[in-house]
Design brief:
The protein has about 100 residues and is mainly α. It has a single domain, classed as Chorismate mutase (Chorismate Mutase Domain, subunit A). About 80% of the residues lie in helices and about 0% in strands. It contains three helices and no strands. The longest helix has about 30 residues. It is elongated. Bound molecules: prephenic acid. The site of prephenic acid (PRE) has 12 residues, from α1, α2 and α3.
């Protein structure tokens, strides 16, 4: 990790990472969209056991990276909330247009 000399350096690095993160989120969104296709009911879009398993996993990963696990948990819970809204929309679209 580079030690920055000023705020402009910091922001350059943040912008570089955002250029990597957004394509990964787009790829993740595509898999979330596919998940909607495998779910029989709209209620199944929210899978609390799966969410808790993901949170546990990413908290461990954060600790391995010497990052605050509470920050990572908050980011993941917010991200999954957004994906649930997205997946619900996708589920309705897929299941409305079936018949
Ligand atoms: O794993 C699933 O079933 C998904 O739909 C993906 C995902 C996620 O974003 O990771 C989204 C919604 C679910 O409630 C749980 C997890």
């Amino acid at each position: 990790m580079a030690k920055c000399q000023n705020l402009a350096d910091v922001r350059e690095n943040i912008d570089r990472l955002d250029r990597q993160i957004v394509p990964l989120l787009a790829e993740r969104a595509d898999y979330v969209r596919q998940a909607a296709g495998f779910k029989q009911t709209k209620a199944a879009v929210v899978d609390q056991d799966r969410i808790e398993a993901i949170v546990l996993k990413v908290r461990h990963m954060a600790m391995e990276e010497s990052c605050d696990p509470d920050v990572i948990e908050r980011i993941y819970r917010s991200m999954i909330d957004a994906f649930i809204i997205f997946e619900s929309r996708e589920w309705m679209h897929l299941h409305e247009t079936k018949e």
